[in-house]
């Protein structure tokens, strides 16, 4: 498996990564994704992809380094998805390990993510990866 951190403007963001990312975020069109990228990159948004031995993108992670008063500095994972055809093959583990290396190199105190309450398979994976539930995420929809 090969893990690649993409630079802004890399065409593989839409060609390779977006089809995998839409398995988790089906509302994303290419136009919307590019819009989010344009705004999010100024906020530190980065993307990393996992490729299998055949050169197919099988995993995607969106992430950023965040400074706040609770954790001081942490790596926040916006998106973490393994293609349905590659699940249980170590892709998610490899992506998380790669992101943990980034977090340690940046002097972070933690690696964090939110996961929808309905994603029980993902939760089992996070627990296997030695992650803990440390907070509730509250949300109020704004029309």
Which features does this protein show?
single chain, 143 residues, alpha+beta, Aminopeptidase, 5 strands, globular
Characterization of this structure:
It is a single chain. With 143 residues, this protein is of the alpha+beta class. It has a single domain, classed as Aminopeptidase, CATH 3.40.630.30. It has a five-stranded mixed sheet, sandwiched between helices. Helix 3 links the parallel strand 4 and strand 5. The protein is globular and about 40 Å long.
Please sum up the structure shown.
By secondary structure, the protein is α+β, with helices and mostly antiparallel strands.
- What can be said about the biggest beta sheet? 5 strands, mixed
Strand order of the largest sheet: 1-2-3-4-5
Count every beta strand, where a strand is a DSSP E run of 2 or more residues: 5
| Large-scale geometry | globular
Instruction: Pick out the low-confidence regions.
Output: none
User: Under the CATH scheme, which class?
Assistant: Alpha Beta
Q: CATH superfamily assignment?
A: Gcn5-related N-acetyltransferase (GNAT)
Q: Helix content range of the residues, please?
A: 25-40%
Would you tell me the structural class of the helices and strands? alpha+beta
Tally of individual helices = 4
CATH architectural category: 3-Layer(aba) Sandwich
Count of discrete domains: 1
Proportion of β residues? 25-35%
- The H/E string reads EHHEEEHEH
Which fold name is given in CATH as the topology? Aminopeptidase
Mean pLDDT: 96
Radius of gyration: 15 Å
**N-to-C CA distance:** 42 Å
């Amino acid at each position: 498996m090969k893990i690649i951190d993409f630079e802004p403007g890399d065409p593989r963001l839409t060609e390779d990564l977006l089809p995998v990312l839409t398995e988790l975020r089906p509302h994303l069109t290419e136009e919307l994704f590019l819009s989010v990228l344009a705004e999010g990159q100024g906020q530190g948004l980065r993307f990393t992809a996992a490729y299998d031995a055949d050169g197919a993108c099988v995993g995607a992670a969106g992430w950023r380094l965040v400074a706040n008063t609770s954790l001081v500095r942490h790596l926040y994972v916006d998106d973490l998805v393994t293609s349905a055809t590659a699940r249980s093959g170590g892709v998610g583990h490899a992506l998380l390990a790669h992101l943990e290396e980034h977090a340690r190199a940046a002097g972070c105190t933690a690696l964090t993510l939110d996961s929808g309450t309905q994603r029980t398979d993902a939760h089992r994976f996070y627990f296997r990866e030695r992650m803990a539930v440390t907070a509730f995420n509250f949300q109020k929809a704004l029309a």
